[in-house]
Amino acid sequence: MANEKLTVHAVILAGGRGTRFWPRSRTRTPKQLLNIIGKDTMLQQTVARLKPLIPAERIWTVTNAEQAAAVRKQVPAAARKRVLIEPMGMNTAVAIGLAAIHARHVARGDSLMAVLPADHYIEQPQKFREVMNAAIDVAREPGRMVVLGIPPTRLETGFGYIERMGEPLTSRNFPVFAVCRFTEKPELKLAQEYVASGNYHWNAGMFFWRVSAFLENLKSFLPKTHAALEKLAEFIGTRSYERRLRSIYPKLENISVDYAVLEPATRVEGPPRVFVIPAEVGWSDIGSWAAVYELLAKKSGENVLAGQGHTLDAEGNFFWSPSKFVAAIGVRDLVVVETPDALLICPRDRAQDVGKIVKWLEAQRRKELL
């Protein structure tokens, strides 16, 4: 069974809003559709990393109606018909389930699936592809699910962690460990213990499995959602599909794939179902403007300017103002982001709070700024 020929499909999750990247990130042009790092957008970079491994006609992108038009413009022509539009925002278990039934329909049977966020940065794309190949190889075994784990490079309380078991199971190019458990964002003291132990990795939300393995586990742990998706699958390719999608989707369970499938799968008795491959590939979720600064600054205290400017007695600042000359005097560790209709100014260590501004704008019904 493991040696059977299976096509590999990629599922890119691209429905997030990226509120911490306001004012550049808006409802119709969120973080993944922007050139946050480099010339290409985050989505374009994600697709480019896949090109040598997975043809464009097998790249699926799950998004929402507000972003669908922009997504289609940014993916290759052959991938445009693979853009799946959620009628309402759902968590990852449902988004992946939707892609799974479509991939099965196209493959007319089982296939392999790589699930990837649209808005993450990978410094070493070639090594990432090598790790992906190893993960796909492990996932060929029926029933196995694989997650990439990022070896911690610092104390971090904002990520989920994966605890691995014992020695690696195989002598592949990359070590493969059974997963003991998933843990949520820990308090600082617990994070210190995790990092010191060497047995924990950050959960970067990158998964690999057979479509059949995912759907079987979804059936075990989220039976109502599985049954509804299987009902929807009967209408793929028919005139009734969109109507059925709008009818069924609100009834599905809004839960992450980690909570819904992966965590309970680690608690099932018998041989391990979930595996982790450590991936030292220069990964960043680029969770805030401060993270952008850290990636772009070549040395400590450097000022990073996206556009023309000059600084005097200033250090550690990030300035995004492509159309205006920036002159900065005597300021330290600031984030300044200008768009035609808004200006963000905050200390770098408060960049995580930018999302609170978006919530305030929502409460004020300032739709023109959202």
Sequence-ordered SSE layout with sheet pairings:
Elements: E1 8-13, H1 42-50, E2 59-64, H2 65-74, E3 83-86, H3 92-107, E4 112-117, E5 121-122, H4 125-139, E6 145-150, E7 161-165, E8 177-183, H5 188-197, E9 200-210, H6 211-221, H7 223-233, H8 241-248, H9 257-266, E10 274-278, E11 283-284, H10 289-296, E12 304-306, E13 309-312, E14 318-320, E15 326-329, E16 334-339, E17 342-347, H11 354-363
Parallel strand pairs: 1-2, 1-4, 2-3, 6-10, 12-14, 13-15, 14-16
Antiparallel strand pairs: 4-9, 5-11, 6-9, 7-8, 7-9, 8-10, 16-17
Describe this structure in words.
The protein is α/β, with parallel strands linked by helices and 370 residues long. It folds into two domains: 8-284, Spore Coat Polysaccharide Biosynthesis Protein SpsA, Chain A (Alpha-Beta Complex); 289-369, no CATH class. 32% of the residues lie in helices and 23% in strands. Strands 6-9-7-8-10 form a five-stranded mixed β-barrel, surrounded by four helices. Helix 3 packs parallel to helix 7 (223-233), helix 3 crosses helix 9 and helix 6 crosses helix 9 (257-266). It is globular, with a radius of gyration of 21 Å. It starts with 7 loop residues before the first strand and ends in a 7-residue tail after the last helix.
For the biggest β-sheet, the strand order reads 6-9-7-8-10
Number of alpha- plus pi-helical segments: 11
- C-alpha-based Rg, rounded: 21 Å
What's the β-strand tally? Answer: 17
- Please give the alpha-carbon distance between the first and last residues: 50 Å
Secondary-structure-derived class: alpha/beta
| Largest sheet descriptor | 5 strands, mixed, barrel
Which residues sit in consecutive blocks of at least 5 with pLDDT less than 50?
none
Overall 3D shape: globular
Instruction: Provide the number of structural domains.
Output: 2
Mean pLDDT: 93
Quaternary form: single chain
